[in-house]
TrEMBL record:
Its cofactor is Mn(2+). This is Agmatinase. Belongs to the arginase family. Agmatinase subfamily. CDD domains: Agmatinase-like_2. The lineage of its organism: Bacteria, Bacillati, Bacillota, Bacilli, Bacillales. The keyword Oxidoreductase does not apply. It comes from the Bacteria. It holds the Pfam family Arginase.
């Protein structure tokens, strides 16, 4: 948790050395201790930073360069291994501090449960909040094998906090029958299988709203992002996910924070997942930090 001085270690390309002068803060949440399948996403944030050196600084999609956005890389939050509740509390306090300073939080996971305390913190500041969630999985379970702190529960938790009608999920292709039924009964929006076309329909209805965007890298097909814990066939292409980021950037919603989670380098033998993730982060910075 480094706010006051430039960090000389592994940082995202072109990070600004000064917290106070920055518009956005990149931070890692290296937690993977509640995953139901393969662990390893605790190493995601560091790998995304390392491969970011291979990025161009210019986005031909947005005609913008990284120099035009000031973002500070705060490093990884030093989370206590194995203690999910304390980790979540630390993440919430950390994000509170970023929001108090008036900056845009851009978090890197880590398993998807890390998004729950972030969204909670963002909701405290922006009561008109809506969530845009891109994922292969519903993440709407109440618990997993009796454990409510699980990476399959964060969307259920935020839906119960802010109201299910304020949560919009895209690209969903995996979950229990009961999760889909719960969403339907409670008026929560779920776009199955696709992201871009349904997103284009939803965005005008969210015009003027504060929106937090949480992206699970496994919304991508395993062919595009094999380096993740819970792969699921039948996903979207990286081209569609980039177009979705740009559609949000060009819409009238006010993006107030975002995260990208579940990159797990140990399964990422070609490094294509980390490289894709770092490009997604560049486009999120250039498109959403204004
Ligand atoms: Mn997922």
């Amino acid at each position: 948790m480094r706010f006051d001085e430039a960090y000389s270690g592994n940082v995202f390309i072109k990070s600004h050395p000064n917290f106070e002068e920055s518009q956005a803060v990149i931070y890692g949440m290296p937690m993977d201790w509640t995953v139901s399948y393969r662990p390893g996403s605790r190493f995601g944030p560091a790998r995304i930073r390392e491969v970011s050196i291979g990025l161009e600084e210019y986005s031909p999609y947005l005609d913008r360069e990284l120099d035009e956005v000031k973002y500070f890389d705060a490093g990884d939050i030093p989370l206590p291994f194995g203690n999910a509740q304390r980790s979540l509390d630390m993440i919430e306090q950390f994000v509170d501090r970023i929001l108090e300073a008036g900056k845009f939080p851009l978090g890197l996971g880590g398993e998807h449960l890390v998004s729950w305390p972030v969204m909670k913190a963002v909701y405290k500041k922006y009561p008109d909040l809506a969530i845009i969630h891109m994922d292969a999985h519903t993440d709407l379970r109440e618990h997993y094998e009796g454990e409510p702190l699980s990476h399959s529960t964060p969307i259920r938790k935020i839906a119960e906090l802010i109201g299910p009608k304020n949560v919009y999920s895209f690209g969903i292709r995996s979950g229990m029958k009961e999760e889909f039924e719960w969403a339907k009964e409670n008026g929560m929006y779920i776009a199955k299988f696709d992201v871009l076309e349904p997103l284009k329909e939803v965005l005008p209805t969210l015009a003027g709203r504060s929106v937090y965007v949480t992206i699970d890298i496994d919304v991508l097909d395993p062919a595009h992002a094999p380096g993740t814990g819970t792969v699921d066939a039948g996903g979207i292409t990286s081209k569609e996910l980039l177009a979705a980021i740009h559609a949000i950037a060009r819409s009238d919603v006010r993006v107030v924070g975002a995260d990208l989670v579940e990159v797990a380098p140990v399964y990422d033998h070609s490094e294509q997942t980390a490289n894709t993730a770092s490009k997604l982060v560049r486009e999120m910075l250039l498109g959403w930090v204004k």
